[in-house]
Amino acid sequence: MASSLAPGQAEGTSSSATAGEEPQRTDIVDVDEDVDSAFEDGDNFSDTTSVSSSIYRGRMINGRKYSSLRDDYWGPSDEQQFETLNAGHVLYLVLDSNQPNPLFRSPVKSPLYVLDIGTGPGTWAIDVADQFPAATVYGVDLSPPPSTWVPPNCFLQVDDVLEEWTWREEFDLIHMRLMLGAFTDTEWASVYKKCFDHLRSGGYIEQIELDVRVMSDDGSLAPDSLLAGWGQTFLDCARRAGRPLDTQLTMKAKIEAAGFVDVQEHLYKCPIGAWPKDPLLKDAGRINLNHWSSGLEGWAMFLLTRWGAPEPWTADEARVYVARVRDELKKRRLHIWHYTRRVWGRKP
Ligand SMILES: C[S@@+](CC[C@H](N)C(=O)[O-])C[C@H]1O[C@@H](n2cnc3c(N)ncnc32)[C@H](O)[C@@H]1O
Question: What is the pLDDT of residue 10?
Fold first, then answer.
């Protein structure tokens, strides 16, 4: 199976909800009025191995690079997408910066073997390897990570996790983040079963997924805005593709169905923009605005041009739409946020 990149030279609160349920509005985030009034011009950004060469080259579609291993995964793997994913990584570190370990919540104290499925740029895997030098950490993805140094106990590999797994180790922790829309329901069941089979007894699975729907509590998001319709547009595209994007709502039940026990869930409200009064949320919001701004095109292009309605959009139509959504993101006094859900559970 996996093509490996040698270490050191890598190239290349708690509540359950079921699918379709409206997410519950939890605590209201207080607005920092100073930030609102500071915007004079409406600019919300002013805060501001041996991996084969075809795998490295990937497939260029509409100006973005995609994995050459599969042609049905929506996300590009290029510098812009890695920048977005790294912003997402920092966002989740900030949101859990008051936790004993912001990298994961599973009570795994001294892991020996860790696997990160869909590792993207490998940032989470690299941080875990740094934090636990005695552990061996694997990150696996359809595409090679960007050229970067990795610690000697971290191995970033290129493979499709839907294929047979060849790792011999029994893992202490298997982690997934932002794998929404990667699998059909049947494929998810198979991935969770593989996770179960490859964890040691007492090992943990942990997964973090976001809700693509953007919301506001104070009506600052106009119901007829593009941003208000953004999430549903992509939920619909992904449903037509057969690889739903509502993973955050469905993962807990699927993880339990795979045999995991004591499955816990934490729900985050993730602000977009520096509008919250709370310093931690303000920081998170500032990072999340960059995350969204750099991510919009990569999130939108494949799904709209393959699965857009009433018929697939042209790349130019998708670009115009993304530009208009980006303009909306810059609007002052927009107190918007989305949910992110983290779930972790134990193999008995
Ligand atoms: C949205 S990215 C998230 C990356 C990383 N987990 C993070 O949070 O930064 C999802 C990643 O899953 C990978 N992926 C999708 N389907 C996969 C599969 N069948 N096998 C391995 N990786 C896969 C994609 O290539 C992509 O890099």
Answer: 40
